[in-house]
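Subject: mismatched residue count in predicted assembly?

I count 658 residues in my input, but I want to confirm that the predicted structure covers every chain. Input:
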Amino acid sequence: MLADLVRDRRVAVCIGGGGVGKTTTAAALGLAAAREGRRVVVVTIDPARRLADALGLDALGDEPRRVGGPALRGELWAMMLEQKRAWDRLVARHAPSDAARARIVANPIYRHLSESFAGSYELMAIEQLCALVEGSGFDLVVLDTPPARHALDFFEAPARVLAFLDRRVVRWLLVPYAAEGRAVASAVGRTGGRLLALLEEATGAEVLGHASELFVALSGLFDAFAGRAAATDAILRGPDTAFILVAGPDERSVAEAERFAADVRALGLRLSALVVNRVHPQDAALPALDAASLAAAGVTGARAAWMAENLAAHRTLANGQAARIAELARRCGRDVTVAVVPEVDDDLHDLGGIARLCTIDPRTSLNPLG
Amino acid sequence: MSANPAPSPLERRLIFVVGKGGVGKSTVAGALAQMLAWRGKRVLLAQAGGPAPAPRSLPLLPVDGEAAMAEYLALNLPGRFLARRVVRSRLYRRFVAVAPGLKELMAVGKLAHEERRRDTWDAVVVDCPATGHGLELLRMPAAAHDAFRAGRIQWEAERVLGALRDPARTAVCLVTLPEELPVRETLDAIAELERLELPLGVLFVNRVHDAPLAAEEIPAAPAGAPPEVVAALRCAREEAARTARDRAHVARLRAAVALPTVLLPNLYAERFGDAERAALAARLAGAA
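Triage response: the counts match. Full output below for your records.
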């Protein structure tokens, strides 16, 4: 059962590229665990609106909400993490006054940080994960991650944001710059001074001033993040955390998944499972189709020709996928559980559809029909 | 604003191709560039979303905002050596990280620069990062223009925005699949592109199934039929059902979107290689 992939774990992080069914897989894992009696929360990003509706997420909320559903011996909770709101909430908590909070939120560099800076969303997701693990009494937290090109994007995000906010790195430059102006630039050294002059001329002094002000204003937040870095790392690297790589069966997706698997290894972490979605079922080897037997089924002429061609095409596709998946599984390593999820004949965007995924047995991996 | 009617989208010099991850955007961008090259155009295929397989004969340009920023700096600092030291300096890296939209602005600036080289290129096809980030590339020059109120970057942002918004020069084409999530994201992307005042081009719907029979026309397997016949009938029914679903999504798109729409077939192949890419380009040549 799909729940096997997260048994004995407190945290399951779904990683992988875009368009592979990560969000659906995260929801299915959560549902599977809840059916077994666990108290689960699924943290999703940008789910399809129908999935959001099925999970009761149509109303935007910053807190997990309980999802009703059939055959749930445990509890399934879900929340949708929205980047900008998560940042604004953190700022509100750490700002010394409402006026300070308002200034931060209006700062254009803050808008950049909270909306488009690479790693900004992932940091919020990690913060949310840790809050749920340390707080709320859930047995299992399932985290869906944004589509990424590299696993590193997720794991390096906290360091990246910390580096961005670290006022100490350029304190010798920006703060004096704002206060005393250009005279300090020459003290920075010729290269730095020339660059500053160039950047000032190119952009207008406002950018550096805004940045300076923001870093000082967010120093409390920086200290909070920095202070938690060790605890966060302990959760991500702990034995109770499972990393689940989600992939599709086509070439691009498999190549991307191979990269993810290599990245995870390079980070000194372990993948616990690989889920390959939307796989074309592979028939066991069959005798060649002949016109007579098709005619006996009432199919002749151009229709018969098309059906024969269609069968061959489906087989070719399935064979290609099976070979790629086998190679991907081999690269992931023998200790990685592989779950192959067949293509279903409908979009999976509600709890009923997702429930069907829960019955996939990870052990009948590579040849679901044979 | 030009008084002449805008050239048709695929006749323009700067063609952006956007789409969600997994829809085949890079493949379609490559096929589009190939088709234009077959028409006798000098085409540059720019990859702004990281490396991707592409038709072999086409000139490729990896587009990296940081490298473009470094080039920009090199033009303004005396000496290549100095420029290299600056690019490695903490201050520079910090500045690029902090400045909203600067990297994307530089990337689009580089593309606009290539588009202006009329002696070299007739068309620049840009394979954008998967949506989310793809639109970021197109959205950021306006953000940079607002953030940088003075100076040379403001001027560069103005120039780039001018090129992006010019329907005589630019078209933003979208790639989607006949499936729920891609369709929804495409409709959202179109709305945002219209808000950004960017000229839209063709909508490509990829991997559209096209069975010649409807599911009802396919008989059930008779009792005792050999397994290969059972399989053939089952696959035929699946293909027919998939075709019906795809057509419903295409109809929904056509109803919601006023753009020229091109349907691309689902190509079954063990591996998607050069032959498949050429087939797709040929299909585009016929349809677009």
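Chain B is about 50% helix and 15% strand. Marking this ticket as 'not a bug'.
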